[in-house]
Description:
The chain is an alpha+beta fold. It is 25% helix and 30% strand. It is built from 4 helices and 8 strands. The protein has an 8-stranded mixed beta sheet, with helices on both faces.
Amino acid sequence: xxxxxxxxxxxxxxxxxxxxxxxxxxxxxxxxxxxxxxxxxxxxxxxxxxxxxxxxxxxxxxxxxxxxxxxxxxxxxxxxxxxxxxxxxxxxxxxxxxxxxxxxxxxxxxxxxxxxxxxxxxxxxxxxxxxxxxxxxxxxxxxxxxxxxxx
Length: 151
């Protein structure tokens, strides 16, 4: 989808999700500070969050079907979809609105500077891709972001 078509399509997704009673279930390491920043991002956009600190994320990622090449620092689930890493709310809302066939979840591999929870004072956000993954382990670029906005 070209950017000129994507922006109008996303315009209706920018409103707070408070009207949606969606819960994001998060699994994270107890010592992860940036995970808390991502959770605050979700809550500030109206999502309810169940936060679970766990010693090992492996079983949760296996249940979600997260490919090894897309891992970051925390895993989550919303409405049957998996989430991995610092996925911005804009991408989550698009996923929930479109519900593309075959897509199991979204990931932001690594920990890009400026992604939700990875903000660094006096440092510009770097562009990054939100990746969508499928059951066969393949993935594709879903959205190009800079911070919490389209790049």
